[in-house]
Amino acid sequence: MNVIEVEGLRKEFKSYSSRSGLKGAFRDLFTRNYKTLRAVDDISLHVKQGEMVGYIGENGAGKSTTIKMLTGILTPTAGNVTVNGMNPHKEREKFVRTIGVVFGQRSQLWWDIAVQESFRLLKKVYKVSDEEYETHMKEVIRTLEIEPLLDKPVRKLSLGQRMRCELAAALIHNPPLLFLDEPTIGLDVLVKMKIRGFLKEINRKYKTTILLTTHDLADIEALCDRVVLLDEGKIIYDGRLDELQKNWVEGKQVHFEFQHPVDKPALEEISREYPVIWRQGERVNQWVATIDGEDDTVSKLMSVVMLHHAISDVKLNKVSTEEIIRNIYEEGIKHG
Ligand SMILES: Nc1ncnc2c1ncn2[C@@H]1O[C@H](COP(=O)(O)OP(=O)(O)OP(=O)(O)O)[C@@H](O)[C@H]1O
Questions:
Q1: Among 98, 143, 264, 309, which residue is least crowded by beta carbons within 10 Å?
Q2: How far apart are the C-alpha atoms of 101 and 118, rounded to whole Å?
Q3: Does residue 209 share a domain with residue 78?
Q4: Does 157 share its domain with 69?
Q5: 13 lines ligand 1 (CB under 6 A)
Q6: Which atom of ligand 1 is nearest to the CA of 74?
């Protein structure tokens, strides 16, 4: 069964642009110029019950706008959205009881009251019975280790403590579908690991479907078999994370540190026989070659580079997911 069904979804934002100068300002009084930005551009997406999907893309790619449409906060300009069998915008009241939402940058807890009071209010809002609350939330509170925080006002919590409480709050009604927008932003590694462990657990136990946006690819690697990659409002990849790794670059990466400044055309010239992409490294005179080929291509490339330029260091790495995604943003999908 599909929990999320999206066809041809689009969201446009209109913004006014002012004309320059006094004359322009005068003309603006009568007719305004406006620009249209397509934040989400005809996307189609199907998510089955129990899937954990990573929804990723650069800043401004359209991730939050999509989530806002899927949760009924924004109305689409065009397209169809069905989530948990409903139209999120039209059947708002019934719909919100079937989803949980965490926006890492915003709080759904009341700032000045104790965490457990917020939980109690949300329990009423979602019409959760005492019995259900007891059995389900006890477990959530124990797993997220928030028992000692329950009588504290939210404003006194650290970010990591608050985020764990936010997650618990989103789960009060044990929703079958969870939207998480940057749930681990700014958290330390230990809290991140705790949250990841917890999400895996509820997914296993309740088959909770999770759509996760994050800039932390370690979150995705730990949780999601499937990634949907968004670029300028369009889906440019939808598939398994390991396929993305395999398809995009099987290869390796070589970090060269040269003794003298070297430029990209020179490197491209000497390596033009090989399937290699060059980019400047973080250090002075450092260049990174991403090689899409067999092991002997790597050694051939290394010897040709060393033949032409004096190097002070060289390091061979496997391409990380982060690098693959960055390459995709820069170069587009080339393989598969
Ligand atoms: N209410 C709005 N009015 C006008 N433009 C908007 C509005 N909300 C978002 N945008 C624009 O739409 C585009 C997509 O924004 P969105 O917030 O969905 O991106 P994102 O992928 O979530 O980015 P980030 O990773 O930075 O959160 C951006 O160019 C943004 O400036």
A1: 264
A2: 15
A3: yes
A4: yes
A5: yes
A6: 1
In a domain, 326, yes or no: no
Alpha-carbon distance 208 to 18, whole Å? 47
Entry pTM: 0.76
Q: What is the domain range of residue 271?
A: 250-318
Cα angle value 329/105/115 (rounded, 5°): 150
Q: Are residues 219 and 174 in the same domain?
A: yes
208 inside domain: yes
Are residue 272 and residue 190 in the same domain, yes or no?
A: no
Crossing angle for the helix pair 159-170 and 115-125, nearest 10 degrees? Answer: 20
Cβ–ligand 1 contact at 329 (below 6 Å): no
Residues 239 and 308 in one domain: no
Where on the phi/psi map is residue 15: left (φ > 0), alpha (ψ -120 to 50), or beta?
beta
Domain count across the chain? 2
For ligand 1, say whether the CB of 63 is within 6 Å of any of its atoms.
yes
The tens-digit pLDDT sequence of the chain (336 residues) is 799 999 999 999 987 777 778 888 888 777 777 788 999 999 999 999 999 999 998 888 899 999 999 999 999 999 999 999 999 988 888 899 899 999 877 788 888 999 999 999 999 988 899 999 988 899 889 888 899 999 999 999 998 899 899 999 999 999 999 999 988 887 888 888 888 998 999 999 999 999 999 888 888 888 998 999 898 899 988 998 877 766 555 567 889 999 999 999 999 999 999 888 898 988 889 999 988 777 688 888 998 999 999 999 988 876 666 667 776 666 655 443
Atom of ligand 1 nearest to the CA of 57: 21
Is 293 a member of any domain? yes
Q: What is the CATH number of the domain that holds 131?
A: 3.40.50.300
Domain boundary pick from 245, 274, 297? 245
